[in-house]
Amino acid sequence: MDLNKCLEILEEKNRLIKIESEVDLKHELAGVAAKFEGKEVVVFENIKGHSTHLVMGMFWNRDNLAQIYNCSAKNLPFVVGDAIEKINSIEKPFEYVENAKAQEVIELEPDLYNIPIPTLALKDGGPYFANSVVIAKDPDTGVRNSSVHRLMLTGKNKLGMLMDYGRHIRDYYERAEAKGQGLEITINCGVSPSVYIAAITPSSAVSIDKDELAVAAVLDKEPVKLCKSKTVDVCGIADAQYIIEAEILPHVREPEGPFGEVTGYYAQEDDRWVVHVKAVTRRKNPIACNLLPGKEVWNSVGLTAEANIYQSVSKQIPGLKDVYLSHGGGGFYYGIIQIDPPKNGMAKNAILSTFAAFPPLQMVTAVNSDVDIYDSDDVFRAMSTRCKYDEDIINIPKSFGHELNPSTDNGIGSKIGFDCTYPIPKPEAYERVKFKEVDINNYKYTKKV
């Protein structure tokens, strides 16, 4: 299932908004997109200086995605988690194709300025690819890796790139660079949600010797279509809108940033990795795709991380019911686990296991199943009435987390856990207030407007 098919489904379900007015790529497009954040997917049909359309918001609403996968929004993380679990059992996860849609037009003298790439936040260092899937090969084993990185346009055939510590592609690159070699990649723009989900699957969920693209094959119930590149020894996604063939140069660093990150703050300019573009291939009528850092990232991270946390923790601790990575924590830093542990102390073990399952987390709260983990007021009520602060708070100093979090020192910072579960057996004092269930339609009433 490609991006075009997904847009057809969303349009049929009235979950697509088309912006017909002309918009400028520099700040204006993102400003308009921000007005629709969390609602329907937005298609910009009139971009100044370009004839290509651009899609924003594929991931900022789980209800939209649920339509594509024919499930409920609440069940979506479990659908993703099931796909991750099944990657080793799928018989034919990949299929190489000739005459790929993504290679209908081949540009061996590439000019990235021909692609509508928006400058998003007001202080961003330039235009950014924010949701393109980067594919690389392990320089020693040849195992393929897919991941998503921010890429700043710095020239017609050059990009600045961020590679977070702990990512598989950074491991690939550092081993290649140690040999004096660059790392060849393809940058796949405008891929299906399934390919994107596969690419953001946490490293802890799929080991470095496995190909996470198989997650997309399970989700779509068909092989991922791949194509051989024209100038690099790395494949591309055959039904992408654009494929950029490139190399991350060895021993070269140039300024990249600032960039308005998922934290809601700017990642500052620094000398980072440089990508040399060798070719661009595309569809005859491509649809560009980008994202607005915020709910899109929070939702997409949650889809994969929540599933991974649930599977990992539930194998160790009984009683786990649900997991939610709160938007208030930027999707990366605050997790809420819902658990009815059979014995006292187990909720604390579950908190520690949650930190291990998703290292970027800085804070985890454990609550019972009578608490709505999607309702911040209900969670705070549990924190204020069930947590004994001298016994139920776990402090973990100087732990590795996420280097984009400004409260850390290059990723090193403190983590904190709150055990807000009631003691076992459940004290009578923790019985929730309930009221009689009635059908309001059986009652006459007047509503003043």
TrEMBL record:
Residues 302-420 form the 3-octaprenyl-4-hydroxybenzoate carboxy-lyase-like C-terminal domain. Residues 7-81 form the 3-octaprenyl-4-hydroxybenzoate carboxy-lyase-like N-terminal domain. GO terms for molecular function: carboxy-lyase activity. GO terms for cellular component: cytoplasm. InterPro entries: UbiD (IPR002830), UbiD-like_C (IPR049381), UbiD-like_N (IPR049383), UbiD_Rift_dom (IPR048304). Residues 99-295 form the 3-octaprenyl-4-hydroxybenzoate carboxy-lyase-like Rift-related domain. NCBIfam families: UbiD family decarboxylase (TIGR00148). PANTHER family: 3-OCTAPRENYL-4-HYDROXYBENZOATE CARBOXY-LYASE-RELATED, FERULIC ACID DECARBOXYLASE 1. This is 2,5-furandicarboxylate decarboxylase 1. It comes from Maledivibacter halophilus.
